[in-house]
Structures
1.
Amino acid sequence: MKRNILITGGAGFIGCHVVKLFVEKYPDYNIINLDCLTYAGNLENLRAIESSPNYIFEKVNLLDVSELEAVFAKHAVTDVIHLAAESHVDRSITDPLAFVKTNVIGTVNLLNVAKDYWGDLENHLFYHISTDEVYGSLEDGGFFTETTPYDPQSPYSASKASSDHFVRAYANTYKMKTVITNCSNNYGPNQFPEKLIPLCIHNIKNNKPLPVYGKGENIRDWLYVVDHARAIDLVFHEGRAGETYNIGGFNEWKNIDIVQLLCQKMDAKLGRASGTSEKLITYVKDRAGHDHRYAIDASKIQKELGWEPSLQFEEGIEKTIDWYLENEDWLNNVTSGNYQKYYEEHYGG
Ligand code: NAD
Ligand code: DAU
């Protein structure tokens, strides 16, 4: 079936892997990447597919309703995969309103424009990408399932929980065809170096301190970003409308153990004596309201859709470290804002 799929946030970390997968795997679909290119988004992430005939970029902010309406009309959008968001918990603690604007109001804008443009809602899908953080924090036992009650603890997770509720409200009230997935922590190429793993890789390389919040005992469940993109492909095509699917790596790590693993692997890769980089570990003040543990039970997507993570963590971490070491320019450009210039040169500002 011919589809014109609007993917929001396609210039960001997860979005660029989703856009690349869809553009390459489905030449019959038109993929429209809508992104306003915040500090976290850049078009260099999409260089591999930017000339593909089925790829279109639109620099639009979710807060601009008339621009959103114009994009739907211009490209006859048939479906939405919504990833655009403010995504960093620490930034949400210093500027919660930015998260309300993009994650809540931006999502409601997109729902409204899609609802009004589609009219007949039966033949169109609104797929919302969310996070395991909406379920709150776990102690040392148990897992989040799709029926775990929402209990968001940070301004970021409160904004994502709110957007999830709006998506469900549109499904219930207007009979919009929707699906939501809630995923655990992603890692891999193209992640902005404010998040734990790319920040540590960047700092180890440059002999800078590795800030570990609190005692480093908080636990996250890590998934390679391409495996998340594969899950999104599967849910988009085979997920049941109205459902929620949890996605996770079955791969829990304490933060301090991840930081130590990165130190060991990078010492070997950089030809440093074993133990050199661990000396950079610096315990710092804990994140306010720091969630202790996230752990996903992904058995629903496994059983219903046959999804499994394809990469073991050690292999994924090797690939990730290698990517950052081989893409030093990318790191320098995202940290200096140079990719804004790339956009102006390629798209005329
Ligand atoms: P990211 O911060 O790397 O990218 C977000 C993208 O959205 C950027 O390209 C940015 O320019 C764009 N954007 C932000 N505000 C916008 C606006 N107002 N209008 C248009 N575009 C805007 O985020 P990510 O880590 O790739 O996360 C993508 C989605 O997946 C988010 O919805 C996030 O909540 C969710 N998620 C992330 C993770 C993770 O570990 N990173 C895990 C689960 C779910
Ligand atoms: O669980 C999914 C979520 O994972 C996504 O919804 C978010 O968008 C994504 O940012 C991520 O949130 P986290 O807060 O878990 O990721 P972050 O990389 O910021 O932090 C991972 C853990 O490492 C967390 O316990 C805080 C800790 N940390 C983080 C940073 C940046 C440190 O100890 N030091 C640091 O410098």
2.
Amino acid sequence: MDLHSNIYVAGHNGLVGSAIVRALEGADYQHIITRTSRELDLRNKEAVDHFFETEPVDYVFLAAAKVGGILANNEYPADFIRDNLLIQTNVIDAAYRANVSKLLFLGSTCIYPKFAPQPLREEYLLTGELEPTNEAYAIAKIAGIKMCQSYNRQYGTRFISVMPTNLYGPGDNFDLQTSHVLPALIRKFHEAKLNQAPTVEVWGSGTPRREFLHSDDLAEASLFLMNNYEGNEIVNIGVGEDISIRELAERVKDVVGYEGEITFNTSAPDGTPRKLVDVSRIAGLGWSARISLEEGLRSVYEAFQGLNLVEQ
Ligand code: GDP
């Protein structure tokens, strides 16, 4: 990309898309193109075709997707598979026909097989059964990766796919029914502190392990790969370290300054026992994450408190 390229960030209001826009602006890219979902419904093929036919686009960051935590994925699998298949199929195909120079598609590490060896290497994709709670989402994302690779093979496009680990950051979803664990715990501990509640309930056994990547790190990695990576193979993006949900709960408790007890609701699902990514491919290309979990948690909690004040 050069500073005058036309760069379309699909999903710019989301956790990932907003971080990519911040990173592009920070690096002085001049022509960042965005559309809200109201202006352009990416599930609508005609609207997407019209957009790519009328707007000159050189690069696409495809960060638009229907995403959610374990509960939402489990309860609304039809919405997850339909919306993601529609969004990615429409954008990837229209981008090809519009001759865009390069496209970056976002997969996710939750689409690796449930019991794949750890740390997860890129070649483990499609080597085993998926986690049932997010199978519909995973099938859609795997289709997106295969679509990029197939277009590259058949049409000579340069569509790359990345596999970010669990993400968090400013502008995250803090709705307890649909969010991922990290923002959920920030909200739960914050509200428990305000209400002087004696306990905070954490779902599951607390033993599953997760790796957490700040969205600003993911955005930096995405720009880095757009500018430096041409391969057909997927690339993991992570920090290379994980912690248990119990440890995460304790860290969030400390950052928030909550003094009560943590309880575990073992009737709630645990999901995949572990999903730590092997980051050697991206490290070999010359990129590694910079934001520590401690620093990231503090900044997200600060942003969350700011958001609450504005809302009140
Ligand atoms: P996953 O990484 O796809 O499994 O999605 P989540 O981030 O939603 O959940 C990660 C783990 O955190 C699972 O074992 C959840 O049961 C656990 N967890 C504990 N408390 C919560 C909570 O309040 N919300 C969510 N979403 N997960 C929680």
3.
Amino acid sequence: MRSIIDILDLSVEELDELVAKAQDIMKDPQKYAHKCEGKKLATMFYEPSTRTRLSFEAAMYELGGNVLSVASAASSSAAKGESVADTARMISCYADILAMRHPKEGAPLVAAMNASIPVVNAGDGGHNHPTQTLADLLTIHCEKGRFTDLTIGLCGDLKFGRTVHSLIAAMCRYTGVKFVLIAPEELKLPSYVKTQHILPSGHAFVETTDLEAVMPQLDVLYMTRVQKERFFNEEDYLRLKDSYILTPEKLKPAKQDLIIMHPLPRVNEISVAVDQDPRACYFKQALYGKFMREALILKLLEVD
Ligand code: NCD
């Protein structure tokens, strides 16, 4: 029995397998339509979500399985004071696999240590978001055809943006990757992500506040939302929220084969005019997420 708490819980070979499986599902969904018959996915989301929860649930339905959903902490026994450990034990009695989002860093790990079913971290506070990284990897693979020799710009809230932390951890395992970290001083990448992942990989990275200056070098531009819910005061959020707004004008010096990604939801950081640009991949990225979650469910339930 395996849980996925961190993207590094999967080996590079397993990531390749998942990408190949997701691509096969995309080609022939019918082949997989009954694979999880009789199985149940529980989704337990103690923070807001649209894409992650619904794509997990859609993934399970597409595999012929069923879904049990705890929509919020307020509507579950967490409101009565039940611990994550106990809730995870309980859900193990009713479901075959659990996808869990929690505002506390490490909560899905605690759940995994106490559950008797696979637990998937669907986002823990400002820490990690491995299944978004699976969606991101499939997007990069389908749109760029490779994981190697890419200059990846990550822009926005690199401090609290958990999708950025997991994506960097994953991309550090491929050769020829360069990171361009674009953030205001207050929202720079936490030093632990640099010391745990970037520095040991030996990959080049630069930190800048200037998106336009670095635009021409980028193969991938990963925009992020300023994570309002993680700020300690509203004043700081209001000051920083519109630090970067991507517009068609700013994309003029960009490569023709750039891909523009965003885990979504978007607030102001990408103007809607950019949606028409063929390089905009963020809506496709959300669709790719469903296929990767199908591949992951099959793997964790050991269904072939
Ligand atoms: C992200 C998240 O929850 O971290 N959303 C998602 O799962 N696609 C990004 C965000 O909320 O900004």
4.
Amino acid sequence: MARVLSGIQPSGQLTLGNYIGAMLNFVKLQHENDCYFMVVDLHAITVPQEPEALLEQTESVAALYLACGIDPKLATVFIQSHVRAHAELGWLLTTMTYMGELERMTQFKDKAMGKDSVGAGLFVYPSLMAADILLYQAGLVPVGDDQRQHLELTRDLAIRMNNRFGELFTVPDGYIPPVGKRVMSLDDASKKMSKSNPNPGSYIALLDSPDVLRKKLSRAVTDSGREVQYHPEEKPEVSNLISIYAACAGVSIEDVVRRFEGQGYGNFKKELADVVVTLLEPIQKKYRDIRESNDLRVILRDGAARASEVADKTLNQLKERMGFLMP
Ligand code: TYM
């Protein structure tokens, strides 16, 4: 049994990329591990957020966790800002992170590109993410491929802290799915599917209605060929759609290719839409039920209490070792 931790930002509509790259594995891992899944609101504010939108999205992501199958009896579900230790350890780790390390982060470079002014929080974001993970002594962190570099920095920081202040932190490993670690945009297979893309046609939102889902998938860009074949280099668009099919239907890439042998893209896309609708419709129904009930607030309060216990213990141990006068 491993300690598992991960988080998702409440910074827009969750996409099928979030689901396949992250949530699907959260649900799998919860059965045999000690899991902590949070909504990382402190991370979301590293880019400007409207207060009402932040509030709505935070509740929405928490409800989606449950709707997608995370069981609060098996896993601890909470909001990052409800556990004060995140901000505090984030600061302690910021003082131990080198500017050069943060300057190398590709996610920072992408998000800061072309902006006149960028908040310092966006720059030190990876130190806060390291705090999230190290507070819980997590051994396993299920994420998509785009988080690999942040995880590498987390490992470096854990080792650095252990060398400086004595063995305390578990050095975590990533848990990155072989299929679906990088779900690409429907309009451009060179970009990852992202909730921050200004073109809604580029992503499948988990809460898109069946009509919208079908329309988006029928308009997904393909090449001028006819064969449903998996060649990520030569046929990136179709390969992306095959991966989405495989992940959503719970079958292998080979199964999908075999099934559509000799058939054109039209039929494949139609069946893909059926698979995605069949997956998302019950999630959406459950989501609406959760939003209408009062259970979510209670679950999140319990989750924060459980998480705080673990997090405070680690934080206090570290502070003592660093030479802070303890109350
Ligand atoms: P975020 O909110 O951007 O995304 C949440 C999770 O979804 C995965 N993901 C994808 N996977 C495959 N294909 C895609 N197109 C795709 N888009 C998103 C991400 O890899 C991620 O796993 N920094 C994190 C949040 C975070 C965190 C943490 C994660 C904060 N603290 C501690 C793990 C542990 C982020 O921005 O994820």
